[in-house]
Amino acid sequence: MASTTASRWTPSPIGLGALLATARIEASYSGRALARAVGRSHAWPRDLEAGARPPSTVRAGRISEALHLDPWTDALLWSVAVDTDLRARKAA
Fold first, then answer.
1. Position 88 pLDDT exceeds 60
2. Tens of pLDDT, residues 36-78
3. CA 88, CA 54: separation in Å to the nearest integer?
């Protein structure tokens, strides 16, 4: 039976994780190096590339800067970014 519980996060566009992984590799970043560059744990890039959770708007900006994303990938990344203030209000 299918779950009727709504997902907490909006699914990432198909292919965004692959685009981010390709950009990371082309920028010569390992997953751990990207995590350090954006201030997250070493497992975070894997979760981001798998579409497990979206980045915050702050992290999206850091990813975009670190990887020098092309306009298309950058737009896709920002389309799924979650406003950190909004997340804090939902948790309260």
1. no
2. 998 888 888 998 888 888 888 999 999 999 999 999 999 999 9
3. 15
Q: What is the Cα–Cα distance from 25 to 15, expressed in whole angstroms?
A: 15
Query: Collapsing DSSP states into helix, strand and coil, what is residue 82?
Result: strand
Q: Using CA atoms, how far apart are residues 27 and 9, in angstroms rounded to an integer?
A: 28
> DSSP string of 22-76?
HHHHHTT--HHHHHHHHT--TTHHHHHHHTSSPPBHHHHHHHHHHHT--HHHHHH
- Cβ(62)–Cβ(53) under 8 Å? no
Quick one: how far is CA 17 from the chain centroid? 8
Give residue 31's Cα distance to chain centre: 12
pTM over 0.70: yes
